[in-house]
Amino acid sequence: MSKGPRAEAPGRPVRYTALAGEATYTVEVVPLGGGRFRISIDGRTREVDSRPTSTGTFSLLIDNATAEVSVVARGEEFAVAVEGRTHRLRLLDEWALRQRKRSGAGEGEREVRAVMPGKVVAILAEVGATVERGQGLLVIEAMKMENEIAAPRAGTLKELRVAPGQAVEAGEILAIVD
Amino acid sequence: MATSRSERPARPLFRRVLIANRGEIAVRVIRACRELGIESVAVFSEPDRTALHVRQADHAYPIGPAAPTESYLSIDKLLGVAKAAGAEAVHPGYGFLAERTAFAEACRSAGLVLIGPTPEAMAAMGDKLEARRIMSRAGVPVVPGTEEPVSSESEVTRLAGEIGFPVLLKAAGGGGGKGMRLVERPGDLAGALRSARSEAKSSFGDDRVYIERAILQPRHVEVQVLGDSQGHIIHLYERECSIQRRHQKVIEESPSLAIDQTTREAMGEVAVKAARTVNYTGAGTIEFLVDPARKFYFLEMNTRIQVEHPITEAVTGVDLVKAQIEVAAGLPLRYRQEDIVQRGWAIECRVYAEDPENHFLPAPGKIEVLRVPSGIGIRDDSGVYEGFEVSTNYDPLLSKLVAWGSNRNEAIERMLRALREYTVVGPTTNLAFHRWALEHPAFRAGEIDTGFIARHFRPGAPPDGLAADLPLIGAALAAVSRTRQAPNGAGVAAAPGSRWRELARREALRE
Known about the structure:
The complex is a heterodimer of chains A (178) and B (511). Chain A has one helix at residues 94-102; strands at 14-20, 23-33, 36-41, 44-52, 57-62, 65-74, 77-82, 85-93, 110-113, 118-123, 130-131, 136-142, 145-150, 155-160, 167-168, 173-177. Chain A is mainly beta. Chain B has four domains: 16-115, Rossmann fold; 144-213, ATP-grasp fold, A domain (Dna Ligase, domain 1, 2-Layer Sandwich), CATH 3.30.1490; 219-456, D-amino Acid Aminotransferase, Chain A, domain 1; 469-506, no CATH class. Chain B is built from 17 helices and 22 strands. In chain B, strands 13-12-9-10-11-14-21-19 form an eight-stranded antiparallel sheet, sandwiched between helices. Chain B has a five-stranded parallel sheet with strand order 3-2-1-4-5. In chain B, strands 7-6-8 form a three-stranded antiparallel sheet, covered by helices on one side. Chain B is globular, with a radius of gyration of 24 Å.
């Protein structure tokens, strides 16, 4: 059952670090009570009136402008649909950010995941190599088509977790670019 | 709009019809059957047990595992179901067995009515070389090229020299861009011939390749025809399908801006003539290429209902699937040529689970949130529902969104409005791509040809301002709602126990 933010008491500010493509954002949410929130994104602050409607969907009022977002979350991963476009991003709360730093992962680290089940047919880059955003890292065969998996950002190919011939599941981590 | 000349008979045309397909087209046929008082019989592969067509049909029979060759392409299994279910006729939809002569013949032998053309017409049009010969003899303009397959390098070099570069090598046995090569220089011919033949062999089991002059910047314009078994053939004017990716259509419209009224009438007459040469019955489509000088050439005939048939239905008012069923039952067409009038403008956007940012590759997955547009002038022919898992086994078409307007501009604005209302979360879709295309100045100006996407589309620049922050705002609100709820109160925004979370846990353990 989806309830969304409860329209009641104010709460303490919650901070997140958002990772989307190559960009990193600092997000702060202050629940003001009554379904209202003060949301800052890299210092751009707005007051948002948010009410859950149908499944995963929030009706927003921002300065009396209406907007609607539909959100599906899988742990840290969020898929957010806005006007026909689905945006994929990761949201790390302070706890997750600390864990990440402790494990030695840089803030700029990006996991490359399989979007559908398939089989690895080729590896196109070596661990340690400098890669450009959009550069092919490996090739996965799925649905009888070869699908080149590209680096989500420029950086160093830190890890390759799969080998040619290996079957992969949807969501499985294939590589890490730092 | 066309007004029917006759009322429907009181008794159903068939008692039961088997629908040898899945997805949105199966749903489309089920709807037509229900309106005609005919019981529908669906078939389903293992992963399709809960597919929309199964939920909507009157009867449903399992036909085996996911692989199409073992289910939707198995003639034996389909005929077995037809017999067991007591079906009198079979509608093949499009794709799968719709244009397989062997299936049409098997239906005839089993005493089943195929809702489609005769095996003879199907065979004649299915072989691209044979179709070219027939059309050329009937005086239908064809792209200059060979009437025989080419096999040797020396032959292809001589013919290409006669026809003039650039030339196109094409597979005789099929379409969809498979086994097709554009050759601009004599030096590239030998290699292109080799690769075209091997691709044709692996795709169609037929390595015959022919050669024709390449029409540069062609527009794809096709004409809908309908024929009955009394020998009447009419056309229902054109559809333009120039917006293509990977040789597959994604946006279609009717009428077409590529042709004027004189060309329109001429193409319609030629299409009827083409259909008459094979005594065509049922619904079919004659595809033409139109060059920048508005000369048109026969490309091929599709002997089935087309994916994009709803735009013709929108501008003519004719229910094409019902017409197919009626003529298959032996009724004469309910319309004469003069009854068919184009009214207004219709556009179709094919909504696919695919990623335009990643070469338009399929992006299947579970549909977590689905909201479909409605309102004046909007039609959504869908094969999915919220909670449905889009499988990797089949075409990732989710639905066909059709907008009708009194003119092209109104149809475009209405489509843009509907696309904004359309929400799919789960699989990546091409909804945003459609908005990009319909807003593009070249599209608005009607300056489109089959190279439109390749020429204009670049993976998107992110929006700025409030629009850029909305995804972050949405995610943050969902995250806050998750933490503010009771431990087990998580809804869609949390999805506990998901595979991804499980993975994250395993990852954590590994480290």
